[in-house]
Write a structure and sequence with these properties.
- The protein is of the alpha/beta class and 317 residues long.
- The protein has twelve helices and ten strands.
- The chain has a six-stranded mixed β-sheet, with helices on both faces. The chain has a four-stranded parallel β-sheet with strand order 8-7-9-10, sandwiched between helices.
- Strand 7, helix 9 and strand 8 form a beta-alpha-beta unit.
């Protein structure tokens, strides 16, 4: 697992090939169907390009769209394993309706389906990592499908320059603060993707329950739910971004003061860097280290997802 974290920057140097690219239509709307770690890249893309119409579909079949919108949309089936049943359902329904479809996968039936039917696809290189760690290469693949050369070049320029070792100790300190407590990740709406990314890492790598929410909405409901003797059960991690709205920053300060006075513990993650791309990639890497060290502190050496695998096996019965 440590090697995969250290090799994170190398993913940005991987060369990708778009097969059947001459069949890729130009569209202004996009829907990506993917589950688990296979849709994290789309969430990141939405963070970098909020002006682009990219909907993430995490279910069977297709989202409810008008017939006109369907014709104007490129449907992208994304699956690391290529065998995710929800994503296969998504791709098969798009084919059935004669809609524009593209595929991103490392292997499996989904990739075979694309190649056998001449569907535009990107065959992700075989990587010795978990799907949740493949966001960089999947993000590059998404840029290729969407024709976003500017973001692709930016990622390929900045990604390899980030040194994972710089964030290692900070990740270890964060992990120590979480021992015996359930992490609650709070940040701004603009950084929702980072909160979700950390939740996935904590769930799958550290085998820890984890929840997240965003300001200002949580101030109108969720914060009222912490009462009684719950202070020793949770640990808040606040994601602080210099680019956040001034009122959001004030909300975070007041929230921390109120709950610290009630005995709750806090850690803070500073989202800093010269460029938005660098800031986001640094926080993702920090989350990788934190989840790894929390797993080690809890005596968890298996970074696979055996419970998820067992669940899928029972679905096949």
């Amino acid at each position: 697992m440590e090697d995969s974290i250290r090799n994170f920057p190398k993913q940005f140097s991987l060369e990708l090939v778009l097969e059947n690219g001459d069949r890729l239509p130009k569209k202004k709307r996009f829907v990506l169907g993917g589950m688990g770690g296979s849709h994290l890249s789309a969430s990141l893309y939405n963070t970098f390009r909020p002006e682009v119409s990219l909907l993430i579909h995490k279910n069977y079949g297709l989202p409810t769209l008008s017939e006109e919108d369907k014709k104007e949309t490129l449907f992208i089936a994304s699956s690391f394993s290529g065998e995710t049943e929800e994503t296969l359902s998504f791709a098969e329904e798009a084919m059935k309706q004669g809609l524009s479809l593209a595929v991103i996968a490392e292997r499996g039936p989904l990739l075979s389906l694309a190649k056998q039917n001449g569907i535009p696809c990107i065959d992700i290189p075989d990587l010795p990592i978990e799907p949740r760690q493949a966001s960089p290469v999947f993000l590059l693949a998404l840029c290729l499908l969407l024709g976003d050369k500017a973001l692709e070049e930016d990622l390929r320029k900045i990604g390899p320059t980030i040194d994972p070792e710089i964030l290692r100790e900070e990740g270890k300190v964060l992990a120590e603060s979480l021992r015996g407590k359930t992490p609650l990740l709070y940040g701004s709406v603009e950084n929702r993707t980072l909160l979700q990314n950390w939740k996935v890492k904590l769930n799958e790598t550290a085998k820890s329950p984890c929840f997240f929410n965003v300001f200002p909405e949580l101030n109108h409901n969720e914060m009222e739910g912490f009462g009684g003797d719950s202070a020793d059960k949770f640990h808040f991690i606040l994601f602080l971004d210099e680019a956040d709205h001034s009122r959001t920053k004030k909300r975070m300060r007041i929230f921390e003061n109120l709950f610290s006075a009630r005995g709750f513990s806090f850690s803070k993650v500073e989202i800093s860097g010269e460029a938005r791309t660098e800031k986001i990639l640094r926080v993702i890497l920090l989350g990788e280290w934190m989840a790894l060290f929390l797993a080690e502190k809890n005596g968890i050496l298996n970074h696979d997802t055996p419970l998820i695998r067992e669940f899928k096996e029972k679905l096949r019965e």
